[in-house]
Amino acid sequence: MSPASVRITSRSQYLLIAKVAEEAERWEDIVIQIKGIIQTFGSLTVDERNLLSVAYKNITNKLRNSWRIVDSLEQLETSRPADRSKRQVLLIHRERRRIERELSDVCLDIVRLLDDKLVSTATPGEETVFYLKMRGDYYRYLFEFAEPKDRNRYADLSLTAYKFAYKHAMAMLDAMHPTRLGLALNFAVYYHDVQKSPERACHLGKHAFDEAVSNLDENFPEDTMRDSMMILRLLRDDLIIWSEEIQKGDGVSAS
């Protein structure tokens, strides 16, 4: 039997190939396998949804980094004398637009998957918060490079997803739960980066940080505690930066 003729017939086989792809850092292959699980079996286990999240995060992070570099180069070239740089600007602009199309396709792909398959079948609690947070994240990424006519729409869609997720998390998850803390961190980043309000970012982030610390439970599983402490450190670092911005008057409040 040739390798090409071997068919995947079980959930464990999909997961095996997805984990092999993760080791090889073949993120698109992970997406294919997890989509196969969704299509065949419906909802995802914790391991499967974490793989899906890691795969899309790595795909989009690479494209977002590429976009930032090319966007900076385009701005630099635009600042030079027109007679020297017009052709270069057009070429760089074309490359930026190509990256934007790729990034938009990836973000809209995961949003459709969330809306069509995952959010509606998620169980209350961590799974629902996990998927709603992802929806907020990927609409936020779309906002970063969107045309002016689309920016408000993506900002509103991201905000709505984060609000639903945060309300659900506060009702269903412990304050030290890493999924709730990760949501609080990203929601605060939304207020800082999208709404340009370090005040709101600090308010949300500090509230989440203080609640988590006051509810610290040494009986938490070791891996859960490790994840939570890592997010708390990231949140603390951001709070320091945002507080300094407020003191210097660098932030523009959206209040």
TrEMBL record:
InterPro entries: 14-3-3 (IPR000308), 14-3-3_CS (IPR023409), 14-3-3_dom_sf (IPR036815), 14-3-3_domain (IPR023410). SMART domains: 14_3_3. Residues 11-254 form the 14-3-3 domain. It comes from the Eukaryota. Pfam families: 14-3-3. The record marks 64, 140 as: Interaction with phosphoserine on interacting protein. PANTHER family: 14-3-3 PROTEIN. Belongs to the 14-3-3 family. This is 14-3-3 protein. It comes from Coniophora puteana (strain RWD-64-598).
